[in-house]
Design brief:
Helix content: 40-55%
Number of strands: 2
Oligomer: single chain
Order of helices and strands: HEEHH
Shape: rod-shaped
Largest sheet: 2 strands, antiparallel
Structural class: alpha+beta
Length: 64
């Protein structure tokens, strides 16, 4: 999946027509959902982030 730049996409036209050909962009809601999904996949695949979440939940003996 290509990187999505929400700021750039927001400034582009939703629909463009030329010589009888019409191109419609995805809605901002779809772009935001795709961006969140990609970020979640990237975070899940990052071992350091995943291990950091596990380690932060470990409490030392006698600790609170």
């Amino acid at each position: 999946m290509a990187d999505i730049n929400i700021d750039t996409e927001a400034n582009k036209a939703a629909t463009v027509s030329n010589d009888g050909v019409t191109v419609t962009r995805r809605s901002m809601g779809d772009l935001i959902a795709a961006d969140k999904y990609k970020r979640a996949l990237d975070a899940a695949s990052d071992r350091q982030t995943m291990l950091g979440g596990i380690i932060s939940k470990i409490i030392a003996p006698g600790g609170h």
